[in-house]
Amino acid sequence: MASNLDKWDWHAAKVPSALTKEMEESQAAKEAEKDAKRKARAKELKKLRKAKEKKAQAQAAASQNDVKAPGDTSARKGLSQPSGISQMSKEEQLKAAQAAEREKRAAAAERRMAAAAALSAQGNSGNSAPSSSQPRNTLSGDTNCSCCYVSLDGKIPFHRYNYKYCSTTCMHLHREILEDE
Q1: Distance, CA of 11 to CA of 15 (rounded, Å)
Q2: Alpha-carbon distance 104 to 108, whole Å?
Q3: Predicted local distance difference test score (pLDDT) of residue 107
Q4: Model confidence pLDDT, tens digit, residues 55-85
Q5: CB 58, CB 80: distance < 8 Å
Q6: Percent of the chain with pLDDT over 70
Q7: Dihedral of CA 158/159/165/167: which sign?
């Protein structure tokens, strides 16, 4: 329309306005400005991500220092290796964080199991009746496996109904024996 203004009836064709060179250049400038803003925002987000990763690395390193063995003197003396921490890859950092989390969970599970065993020993000290398949000359059913009669002292027993077992194999075998009776 801008180059052929008199060639057609542009108003009858309902063409809104002519697109001139100046208008094209201003649109291109606006697009370039939008692209620049978009790139700047992406760069800023990248910096924020890197800052978060550095913070996570520092936390992972701190948790590793807390988990280190008491014989490790470098952690106690405050000697650190900042170049080693910065050179760790993301994968290594993730593995270290996962290992620390596993250690925490394992320690918590061990504490729960020990507490459950202590409660079980206190609560079941005289409550269960001896099994009918248990020989008369054995000790109380609380300290022996209900199937093979091995002592359960120092072990965490498996439970099924009022019976205690040293292993899952004994539990399944005793269940079959009881079903046959």
Answers
A1: 6
A2: 6
A3: 85
A4: 888 888 777 776 554 554 444 444 444 555 5
A5: no
A6: 75
A7: negative
177: Cα separation from own chain's centroid: 42
Q: Which residues of the chain have pLDDT under 50?
A: 69, 72-81, 126-141
Retrieve residue 102's tokens. 């596993």
